[in-house]
Amino acid sequence: MEMLSNFAPFEKKLWSELIVDIAVGLYYFPNLILMLLADDDAMNGIAMLDLVTNTVILAILVGIMVSFLLRVDKKTEQMDERDHTFNARGDRIAYLVLVIFVCLLIGQIVVNEMMPDALQNRLFELSPIVIGHLLLIALVLSSTLKVIVQLFYYRRGY
């Protein structure tokens, strides 16, 4: 617990955000892939509702536990120039990852529309709900990388 005393309040918030993101991602996405491989109808039914509900409950519980364990303070401290620089660096990486992922997804959609028979051996059909989940993966990945970059710069110190 002494290690936690060395963390700034903003850094503790980043750690808690990262832990919650990873826990939710490790629960949600493997279950989603199993649903995708099983049947596309499962994604439109009650199983998808159960998955989303359980994921939200998990996120709340993990968030509460992590906040308690890390003793994340609700008090806000004034951000200095260093904090703004670290935020900007994290935002830049997150933005680049998100743009690249969205461009690749748009490219995949265009290829599917222009040449529907070109990719017959694909793992699953690129339906609107699958596209939505791929965008969700992009958002979670970019958010997680943003926090990792910010934590890297906080630990490095400059």
Order of helices and strands: HHHHH
- Work out the number of β strands: 0
The largest pleated sheet is described as: none
Total number of domains:
1
Helix count equals 5
Q: Beta fraction of the residues?
A: under 5%
How would you sum up this structure, described in words?
Helix 2 runs antiparallel to helix 5 (128-156). It is flat and about 55 Å long. The chain has helices at residues 2-5, 9-38, 46-70, 81-114, 128-156. The protein is an all-alpha fold.
List the helices and strands and how they pair.
Layout (H helix, E strand, L loop, with lengths): L1 H4 L3 H30 L7 H25 L10 H34 L13 H29 L2
Comma- or semicolon-separated keywords:
158 residues; mainly alpha; flat; 5 helices
Provide a compact summary of the structure:
By secondary structure, the protein is mainly α. It contains 5 helices and no strands.
